[in-house]
Amino acid sequence: MTRVVIVGAGLGGLELAMRLRKSGFQVVIVDKNNYNQFPPLIYQVASAGLEPSSISFPLRRIFQGYKQYFCRMAEVKDIDVKEKAIHTSVGTIHYNYLVLAMGGTTNFFGNEDIERHALPMKTVEDAMALRNHILLALERAETEEDAEKRQKYMNFVIVGGGPSGVEIAGALAEMKKDIVPKDYPDLADRMHIYLLNSGDRLLKAMDAASSATAERDLKQMGVHVRNGWRVTDYKDNVVSVGNGETIESTTVIWVSGIKANSIGGVPQESVGHAGRLLTDRFNRVKGMDDVFAIGDQSLVEGDPDWPLGHPQLAQVALQQADNVACNIMRKEEGKELKPFTYKDLGTMATIGRKHAVAEIGKAKFGGLFAWLLWLVVHLRSILGVKNKFIVLLNWIWNYFNYKQSLRLVLRPKQRPLEE
Questions:
Q1: Per-residue model confidence as pLDDT tens digits over 302-324
Q2: CA dihedral 240, 218, 124, 142 (to 10 degrees)
Q3: What is the pairing mode between strands 251-254 and 155-159?
Q4: Gyration radius (Cα) of the chain, Å
Q5: Do strands 258-260 and 104-106 pair parallel, antiparallel, or not at all (unpaired)?
């Protein structure tokens, strides 16, 4: 059978696999995790608003009953183009078609101090670690007698003015308003949230009016927004900014950049900006046969509407997955391939309860309606009826009283499997 190997089971990889269910191909999905995660709601796990399992779904459960679908939990090391195979931590897997959908990772721009000490928020694992860190900081501040040390625990710094930065800043602001006074009454007025943005405005991918709305709402929620502040270093619990300013903090959340996950065996000339793989209009990787790349890992060349590449958004990955699935089937049938054309369906970012901004076509709006629309769109995208119900129940519960039982510091211990 024709074998399609998909590396990465994120939004794009999963969509591609779903589109090939009736193709008659053998599909092998390779991912370092045995689950799919929903990135837009990772910040809610980090702020103890949702359980990790609510935004994750086991891959094997999705493809139960499909005999020619195989899932392999493995790390992919490199590609052997001559053999048409990938080398993984569980062995070699051959392919007829290979689709790279490995997504992106946090970009620390080569600063080792920041990478060592700051907290990323890219995966469910990152979110769980961040949740523990935030709760531990509050616990330490509760018992710290030295005022200066206590304030370090109570200063929360977010670096990055994109959607992720705005959303986690809003979530922490709601925690400051509704949770800290009840759980930590001694710390009610001591929590400070700083959002540091190197650009001149927040949400730079959106319209200036939407940026202004987001900034206004965050400031009203008590967030200290600092535009034009480029963080240059973070060590010894001190955030250093290019303008000479410093902030003492034990919690720095880094959501300032993204770079593509890398894989060996790719020609150097096929690697573009931030590690993204250069592809043609059909998402075929430059200089490689029968190898495609989609999502955050892909940079499509030759599209006049997007000369610098498409934005690294979920909708791009989903639409590219549909196009690649169609083209693989068309190629097997000897038909002409269809070039990928991105259709911008809009952009949204939530700030807090009843606060969000949305841009759909020429329509730009914020407030309650944008917030409700954001809830509906994201709820529909979550996998599993049970997960949808749990997330909806949590949102309703949070809306009325914030008496969640998820603020737990959990430290899982792992024992390696014996060889």
A1: 888 888 889 998 999 999 999 99
A2: 70
A3: parallel
A4: 22
A5: antiparallel
